Amino acid sequence: MAELSAIAQTSAKVRGAAQTPVEGNVPLMPIQRWFFEQQFAVPQHWNQAIVLEVSQPLQPDWLKQALGGVIRHHDALNLRFMTDAAAVQQVHGSPEVSLRVIERSVLDQAEREATITAEAERLQRSFDLATGPLFKATYFQFQNSQQLLLVCHHLIIDGLSWRILLEDLQVSYGKICDRQAIQLPAKTTSLQYWSKQLQQYAQSPALDAERDYWQAVVDSTFVPLPRDFPQGKNLLSTLDTVSVSLTAETTQQLLTQVSAAYRTQINDVLLTALAIAFRTWTRQPKLRLELEGHGREDIIDGVDLSRTVGWLTSLFPIVLDLEVCEPESRIEPSDLNADLNADLSALLKQTKEMLRAVPRRGIGYGILRYVRGGVAFRPLWTCGLTIWVRWIKVWFRWTAHSPSMLLNRCRMIPLGSASPKFPPAEPEVPGTIAPCC
């Protein structure tokens, strides 16, 4: 009773946080409108897959109950998307648990990985945006190894939502192990309420004040990126990936020493490094980027999105002006081993100031473009040079009260693209780097 009382008191202070199931339509979020604007050839293939390595065997029946508790608690996991000639309608469907159990006893590591990948692709192919469910699970019982695969369509989840979802799954399974009723923390503002509030915010004076800022960013002109093969194709079907990593020592310096010395955040430092590399390569003075934010900005009184599951991501453009560096200057990697030189210090400071100047962390751009309407913002990939930067941070904080679901490792696995061409309206995308999350 004490837990229920605390939940009731908490939810009473938060707008749009009813603890009962949410029903009815949900206006599309700006990022969801962006998604459907792309007209992907296979829109159901825009998913995120996570593999959890479990240290002890799980009871499939208990796992299904735990998944059901999470799905009933987080209304966004029950969303469906109906498409007609006029528009896409986002509606709440009935909670539905999809859990498959696969047993394999004689597979080596490579075979296990191939089995998991094949199952993830099978789950992706089984998705139907209109009928759902759009969140599915498969539990693998291998010899001396148990792994749980979770696949969720990106339309209903983002990076922060994964953290919430996995924490609640851990708690739910622990409650079942202890023969207790599933009791999760109170719901915060629903996605439905938040989306409706954004409809009202779209007409506010606060958003009016941002219009000129965003129009200036979009109207900026740039030269295309240099290309070795001007007649080549620049499509997702021809995409290649180059992965690099930093040493633990360098990472520690970035996160602590540089940030403390210049009062910066890690994004400031990474974008400055990108700007330096770009200027050295192209000799161009300006760099336009598309950045992602978590989209949970404090712009509406009484709203709490700290435990709200859904795709709330904000996507917005910025322009970094690199005039602070001399045209012929070149910052060598060896310079980074000593104190930051004058040029690098100035560029780092200017980058920080440019990012701080973005109004309300960029959430207004998507609202202006996709919710308010009537604003002449061109799609950024038609405006010249754009580099798309997407950082996905998923932090997991596992509760330790139940030994039945202790996790050794958690990783995301790539799935097939929603379309071999991106964006579909342009067969080629000059000067665009667009990694998928």
Description:
The chain is α/β, with parallel strands linked by helices. The protein folds into 2 domains: 2-195 and 394-413, Chloramphenicol Acetyltransferase (2-Layer Sandwich); 201-392 and 425-433, 2-Layer Sandwich (Chloramphenicol Acetyltransferase). 35% of the residues lie in helices and 16% in strands. It contains 12 helices and 12 strands. It has helices spanning 2-12, 30-37, 60-73, 109-126, 159-177, 191-201, 205-208, 211-219, 248-262, 266-282, 342-356, 363-372, and strands spanning 25-26, 47-54, 79-83, 88-92, 99-103, 135-142, 145-153, 286-293, 314-321, 386-389, 407-413, 432-433. The strands form 3 sheets. Strands 5-6-7-2-11 form a 5-stranded mixed β-sheet, with helices on one face. Strands 9-8-10-12 form a 4-stranded mixed β-sheet. Strands 1-4-3 form a 3-stranded antiparallel β-sheet. Helix 2 crosses helix 12 (363-372) and helix 10 (266-282) packs across helix 11. The longest helix has 19 residues, at 159-177. The protein is globular. It starts with a helix and ends with a strand.
Question: Briefly, what is this?
Answer:
With about 425 residues, the chain is α/β, with parallel strands linked by helices. It has helices spanning about 1-10, 30-35, 60-75, 110-125, 160-175, 190-200, 205-210, 210-220, 250-260, 265-280, 340-355, 365-370; strands at about 25, 45-55, 80-85, 90, 100-105, 135-140, 145-155, 285-295, 315-320, 385-390, 405-415, 430-435.
Largest sheet, spatial ordering of strands = 5-6-7-2-11
> For this structure, what is the CATH class of the largest domain?
Alpha Beta
In terms of DSSP E residues, the strand content is 15-25%
Helix count, DSSP H or I runs of 4 or more residues: 12
The gyration radius over C-alpha positions equals 23 Å
Number of domains: 2
Q: The CATH topology of the largest domain is what?
A: Chloramphenicol Acetyltransferase
Q: What general outline do the C-alpha atoms trace?
A: globular
- Can you tell me the CATH superfamily of the largest domain? Chloramphenicol acetyltransferase-like domain
